[in-house]
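Standup notes, structure subgroup. Blocker cleared on the 1-deoxynojirimycin input:
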Amino acid sequence: MGDDMTATPWWQDAVIYQVYIQSFADGDADGIGDIAGLRSRVGYLSALGIDAIWITPWYRSPLHDAGYDVSDYRAIHPRYGTLSEARELIRECHAAGLRVILDIVPNHTSSAHPSFVEALRASPGSPARSWYHFRAGRDGGDSPPNDWLSVFGGSAWTRVQDEDEWYLHLFDASQPDLNWDSQEVRAEFEDILRFWFDLGVDGFRIDVATALMKAPGLPDLGYPDGAFLADLTRPNHPHRDRDEVHEIYRSWRKLADSYDPPRMFVAEAWVDDADRLSRYVRPDELNTTLNLFYLKSAWSPASMRTAIDSSIAATASVGAPTTWSLSNHDVERVVTRYGRADTRRIPGVSGPELGPVDERLGRRRARAAALLTLALPGSPYIYQGDELGLADAQIPPAARQDPIWIRSGGRRWGRDGARVPLPWTTDGGSYGFGDDGAWLPQPAGWGSHAVEAQDGDDTSFLELYRQALRLRRTHPALGGTNAVTWHDAPRDDVLLFTRSPGFGCVVNFGPVPAPIPLDGQVLLASDGADFDGLLAPFGAVWLDLDHATARTRHEEPGAR
Ligand code: NOJ
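Run returned:
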């Protein structure tokens, strides 16, 4: 790639676009996104102005959890293509100036993985079983070995057929947890990392990075009767954020740093304590971590400011850059969440239970949030389709595929609504996603959000993202990791900060126009117009402070 590889590490402020491969673009008309489709859209991605793509699992898998159940970590699932197509994709991305990050799933394999199949065949206590967590059940084998619950709901244990032993799975029964006390498991994963690094990938997102190590003896959590979902919030948790996990990542970092150029890691770490989170990105550990404070925050000035400050503080304390994401494939899309009265992300709950959605309002807020996010220091993540302003789709129950929906017997809505194939064209069988149909039904009217519908329309979501990403590359204050300076706002529902040199960002969270309390020329506004010095309701604006305009400074109506 370019000659800047040895300067400031690229991942410090890279804009990373999440490709949910089965829903991005379908190149072979089977209704499922694939590498051929992705290759045909590299031009779109590079023109969008991003720096890297993160591709969700594309490995061989029985697909009980959308590929987060891997049966061969060194093979591409045939429905996505071949290893040589993967190699070509990486080469083409690099040629277009885009880095490629893959998803590694180290906490569990698929139950169809040869090592688990072998473990099942082997007898209790055998070396093959030591790759996983097999334990004798209680009550003569009739009850699970402990009370742990799955993150998807129900017991975290499944009994081996015709035996008293059970195996642990913190997610679906088809995803047995690996035993990271095993040196063989550790060696195997380092070999997998090498395999892909040698193929040219630039980094990995680490799935459930916090869960690999379990407390010795697998002690009970003490769940109340009737508990259904894993509680991940307890201190000194027996299967979450154990201190011992860091040794694994120190070793991985050494491996990544042994490459030229060094490869990178981003942790998926749902850790609520800023200090605990910062441990994952100490200088000899992972490079970055996904930022779930920001993703969970309510769209309110106080909450967003706290999320921003605590995120920056957590990572700055160990010299790591901060990342920012508004959504991903596991949560409701930002337009949907921001269209509700309560804009927080509520763990374990989604869908209509959370109340009605005003998508128009959600879109206005999401546009403002895009400008806020892209103005922050560090590395923003964009979930595919967020640049089109997509909302969650209502998936008919019969079409749902998420194990959360299936395991809960329909008690939990699941994540399918955020995973619907992208619309590329305004018409056609699958709105340009592929030739024929889409694996999850696209809602009527999906074409009005298509790339084709938005391309060249200055008022569109897509053009807002394109302009913001262009400015982020060219404005000397944007990108990078330099500080955010907050300023007092004239009203409680307005946030404003500056970055040096000469950049200001103002966000109006409220329903009435707000004065723009900084002198500067409007670089970009989320709501098109700047209302002659007033910031639109639910709008955000970027300002060039070195070029003040002659526009009138408005006082807040009724302020005097
Ligand atoms: C987190 C992934 O993002 C999610 O999609 C998956 O279901 C779980 N980890 C289990 O691998």
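Discussed briefly. The mean pLDDT is 94.
Next: hand off to the docking folks.
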